[in-house]
Amino acid sequence: MQQKILNRIFPDKTIKTIQHINKGYEHAISIITFTNDINNNNDDKVIFRKCKFHNDTNEFHFPIIQFLSNLLLQNKINVISKIIYFEENFCLESYLPGSDISDLPNQWDTFNEKQLNYLLKQLSNILLKLHKINCKKFGDINKKETILNNNSIVIGKDNNWLDTFDNSFQENLNYLKKKKKFKKEKELLKVFEIVKNKIENFNEPKLVHADLNANNIRVQFNEKNQNYELTGLLDFGDVKAGDPRFDFGRLLSHWKGDWNKLNILCKYYYYGNNVGMTKEDEIMIQFYAIYYCVFLYTVFDGKENDEKYFNILTILLQKWNELNI
Description:
Blueprint: H1 2-9, E1 15-21, E2 27-34, E3 45-51, H2 63-73, E4 83-87, E5 90-94, E6 99-100, H3 113-130, E7 135-136, E8 138-141, H4 143-148, E9 154-158, H5 166-178, H6 185-201, E10 206-208, E11 217-222, E12 227-233, E13 240-242, H7 245-254, H8 259-269, H9 279-299, H10 303-322
Helix pairs in contact: 3-8, 5-6, 5-9, 6-9, 7-9, 9-10
């Protein structure tokens, strides 16, 4: 099926290889190389991204969301793929050089202190550009309204940022309770009650990537300066209109509650505001990390993942208690 689609879209090219990439929850990804790629020219490679979930309840995974996001960002951020072609449940993207951090032998531990600072400074600059993009409303992207506005502004589906969390957090906690996976649901609900008013009163929605992790950050080693250049920020299929700190919470969950890396990133991100990261920023980032970890805990159901997310959630809750709120 995939080869037939590619032959239809690229009738004058011959496929040399199709490399299937086994990563990600929402998408099946393949790297397509054509036979005229005699000099290993990246321009002759494309990414085939197919949506695994094809129904109205998973609309935010649709390739059109990826397309709308990339169209809006293509003149603002230079490390995102260009959408070459898309249909209802798949899209073709330009290939970006380098490797996903998740493909490096030691992932984040690959980088020494200097390299990590260099890389996270680049990431902070990209996030500053992303988070300057104003949105209307909140939550997952309303593709119909966004298209009707000529994609000049991203429009969310919810009238309040709280709508993104209110029901889903409770439902996910109920699932964990039912499965007897985590026995501190009341403590987690208390966390939510503390930040609920802050979320409800948040009224400056910006464009949020919403899935920053090692699978979606691409790097390439620079022999001259012995650093890693950030060559790609991938997968804009989950973007939201909301609080930029959600991206930091997602990263904190990915980093298993380790604030060391996040503090480096935030040092550069908040450098220009003359205030730095505030206590409220810490509180919201910690909550978003807890929220996302609870979400992943329910999605990736299985013995190995249960232990992983149990441990991360335990660390995040411990860090929350250390904030002395």
